């Protein structure tokens, strides 16, 4: 029963994130294909002191990390796999979403987005493993 619930939560959260990436926050179809394949190029722009904007920084840096943390918990539970395979599944999903953004011109395909998303996933996975280890330790004492 719990396994089915985790499947539903993962599916629902994936659809929510896809909606955010393609339609929410005033996204409209652009006129050009936008992409960045140079690692850290976009991140450097957000951290540029001369052009620093707190809301842009929070949305683009912290948002791209925080929104993807739940995948670090849900993917290993649903697929019963360790970090490497979980990250591979996550990467496949993100690459598909980034390509859809590019092809529909509803955003950009950005290497930095993937790096930040993967960081969020990894933080989520680390938290999941810490909580799991703590729970197992408590259960062994009983």
UniProtKB/TrEMBL annotation:
Its source organism is Paenibacillus septentrionalis
Sorted alphabetically, which Pfam families does this protein's record hold? VanZ (PF04892)
InterPro entries per the UniProt record, alphabetical = Teicoplanin_resist-assoc, VanZ-like
Where are its TM segments located? 57-79, 86-103, 115-135
For the VanZ-like domain, which residue ranges apply? 13-131
Q: What is the designated name of this protein?
A: VanZ family protein
Which keywords label this protein?
Membrane, Transmembrane, Transmembrane helix
